[in-house]
Amino acid sequence: xxxxxxxxxxxxxxxxxxxxxxxxxxxxxxxxxxxxxxxxxxxxxxxxxxxxxxxxxxxxxxxxxxxxxxxxxxxxxxxxxxxxxxxxxxxxxxxxxxxxxxxxxxxxxxxxxxxxxxxxxxxxxxxxxxxxxxxxxxx
Length: 139
Ligand code: ZN
Hints:
CATH class: Alpha Beta
CATH superfamily: Hypothetical protein, similar to alpha- acetolactate decarboxylase, domain 2
Helix content: under 10%
Bound molecules: zinc ion
Radius of gyration: 15 Å
CATH architecture: 2-Layer Sandwich
Largest sheet: 9 strands, mixed
Structural class: mainly beta
Order of helices and strands: EHEEEEEEEE
Distance between the termini: 24 Å
């Protein structure tokens, strides 16, 4: 399967995860790398507590630049699933960063998805981390 590269923008007020996931469903993107820049007026960032196997999050209700948002799309339970991390800049030019959760609302955003061909990559529960991880053969 040939790989494709997509460039598109997200509408004002949309949820990053919802819109990018919908794009992947509509275009049958099952595996790829995602890069986003732009701005949000609400965001939910967090980190994974490795000892307790749970995420902690923080909601920001302010104007923030998407300095960098990197991640990927793969399959989870047979559907496109996004894993995104972001560095968001505030009005003092400080950055907040971490795992980007659904619930981050777009002011303006430009998205690039680089599809990766070949067999689909699936996330499966991993008991040792508590996460849903890619099941690949170790290199
Ligand atoms: Zn993460």
